[in-house]
Amino acid sequence: MKTPVPDYLNHVLSQCNLNDSGALADYIPELANADPNKLALALSTVDGTVYTTGDDDVEFTIQSMSKPFAYALAIQHLGLEKVLQKVGVEPSGEAFNQISLDAKTKLPKNPMINSGAITTHSLIPHDDQISRAEHLRRFLSELAGRELSFDEQVYASELKTAFRNLSIGYMLRTVGVLDEDPVDVVNGYIRQCAIKVTVKDLANITSVLANGGIQAKTGKQLLDRGIVRQVLSVMMTCGMYDAAGDWLSTVGIPAKSGVAGGIIGVLPGQVGIAVFSPKLDEHGNSARGIQIFERLSNDMGLHLMEGTPSAQTIVQRRYSPQQDDSIVIYELVGALQFAEAEMLLRIVQEEPNGNNTIIFDLNNLSLMNDVGRRMLIEGIDRLIEDGHEVVVVDPDYLIEQELTDRGQVMTIYRHLDDFLSKLSGLTKSE
Ligand code: DON
Q: Where are the domains of the chain?
């Protein structure tokens, strides 16, 4: 059996190939030389698997898709609070290159429009050896899993016509958001936009965001979870500029576009998506790219607001080995997050007080998030206070403590059989 996913992606691509709408960006002269027919799609999963189709080895400049990563580096370097003192998080409802500031705060409205992105570029760490753009190139290379390079031609071309971005830079310097030479900062920002990528690179990069900042293949935490959450939030509300509301309602995936024709999208916990097709709509977003995202979102149920119904049950089985009612095993299944933890504790509260042994078997749990863990441990504390002994079967080290938060002992076994064999004469009943 061959997985149908590549066939499906091919099918979507060939249908969207028929769409000939849009126009090449020409305010950066070099981008007007792009081949308008190029079309590529890549999809990554949180375990780092990448499917690609179409012109998947064509390199193009990252442009505004660099902005979320500059923002991430700025937060990693300075902390969110300091970054928020320079750039807001409100959607602007304006074009990406609007020469504007928030009327009240006198700050750029968000880090996805050019005024905010030029500001966040200035917050990336740098020194005499490593420029800010180079810092970002190295970071994106690590996320992509290969050494990326700059497109010197596109960089030089954009520098020649960067009048609007220079105006923005001078405006930011005038109000004190920038406190250094605005020309240097704008040049650095334009260089950051000239990093070359393929859709495969972008899929690798977005896979890390979809996976809470962890690169599955190396196991490295490349970005803190909190930073990923912040970055995806501004992508959701501001990533598609003045089309953000339309995008949220029709596609519902945090995304960012670039004027070279790329769009990236990240559905947390599920997939990263990257498309490339150079012709743009009136908002400066890839016309075919938007169509592909709409298709994928509809076909695959990827709209964030569709949510994932939580499991019908978290307790797969409640049983007592060899009908010994003093031992009760809760065999848990699926993901233990808030909704499932609430369900579990509601079920377990029916246990009468006493001195039974309550066992939570986590063997079939696929995931336990922080609140799931904290609620389970709080429940365990309460069971112990009710007079029970509590045992946790935790083969995957989901619980990293042997004492509860109130210092009570919960016995941890890696296998249920290890516990059962300790009980004289008892074996697991089926
Ligand atoms: O600053 C600019 O105008 C370009 N380097 C990037 C703009 C961009 O990608 C807008 N997004 N669709």
A: 5-306, 315-429
